[in-house]
Write a structure and sequence with these properties.
It is built from 8 helices and no strands. With about 170 residues, the chain is mostly helical. The longest helix is centred in the C-terminal third of the chain and has 37 residues.
Length: about 170
């Protein structure tokens, strides 16, 4: 538990910086922009880099960063990336061409749906495991029967959710 708290504290302290001191000083703004483009960052994201680099006295070179970002955006604006973003719980960033949005949004929605099914399965599985522990200790036959019934019902629900998840499991 202490380790988790320490990790959380460390992340809280460092989580705001978009770039390291070394990246700021290195100043490869086109490469940084490319990376940001492949991750679907908007033009406004450059302000986050400017803030991260303030202490080093380095200012981002907007033109180079934007050139890199524009080169990276095509890698973000593909159905497989949109789906992956959804599976990670992220909605599609508003950086893709309007003509591509219907297909990208459909892929992102499938990914989000997959994530929802996975989350629901995990929650139900937790309850199934809990029932298993309760069954071991329960002596009353009526209560055991109710637990067995609930366990079967939840297991059936998991099977149904896994089937639905498999339908959105890939593009």
């Amino acid at each position: 538990m202490r380790a988790l708290i320490a990790i959380g504290f460390t992340l809280a302290l460092t989580g705001c910086a978009t770039l390291s001191k070394e990246e700021c000083l290195g100043g490869n703004w086109e490469e940084i922009g490319f990376r940001d483009g492949t991750n679907g960052k908007t033009s406004a994201f450059l302000q986050s880099h400017a803030k991260a680099c303030e202490k080093t006295g380095v200012r981002p070179v907007q033109s180079l960063w934007e050139q890199g970002r524009q080169r990276g955006l095509p890698a973000y604006c593909v159905p497989s990336k949109a789906y992956s973003e959804g599976r990670s719980g992220r909605s599609l960033s508003a950086v893709c061409p309007a003509a591509e949005l219907p297909a990208l949004q459909a892929a992102n929605n499938k990914g989000l749906e997959y994530r929802e099914y996975t989350s629901e399965i995990s929650e139900i599985q937790y309850r199934v495991n809990e029932i298993g522990r309760m069954l071991i200790a329960e002596q009353d036959a009526g209560k055991r029967a109710a637990l067995v019934h609930e366990n079967r019902s939840l297991s059936n629900r998991i099977s149904l959710l896994e089937l639905r998840r498999s339908l959105v499991g890939s593009l």
